[in-house]
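Task card 7
Instruction: Convert sequence to structure tokens.
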Amino acid sequence: MSSQVKAQTSPTSASALPRVRLVDVTNGRQQVTGVLTGRAGDTLLIMPDSTDGEPQRFSLSSTLRIEHSIGMQRRTMQGFGVGALIGGITGALMGASSSNKKPDCPPDQLICGNFGPSPSASGGAVLLALPGAIIGAIAGYNTLREGWVPADEDRTRLTVAPLSRGGLRVGAAVTF
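Output:
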């Protein structure tokens, strides 16, 4: 079992419960994503994102990996890196082509020449890498993706317990 979850289901706000997803480790396919509402024996009760009805039962097996959501993550650094790479490559190609112009190239043509190493290629790479990185970082900042981490039995414990006055107590503990 990848996670310890205690309790049965009880009416409460779904937004207060942990989001989980089950992934089949044999093929890497996602089985279900939803809200963990409880556990009954070796079966997890999950309210899938795609339904508003009753929680569905998923039997714990060695072929399923439980992951829990760490929330929505911005992709700023990834965008920064991709933008710098694209800008650098574009600048290097433009610099290399403009410094080694063939004699038969028209003067008004920007890209014409023999591609090869030149000081202009390095300068072009540096010159366009910074704007590319800035544009990429802005695009990455505006891109949200839900982050998921494995719910390791040794490191993470999710608890869902009923309260005597109604509702559920939800807790998460992470050990480093």
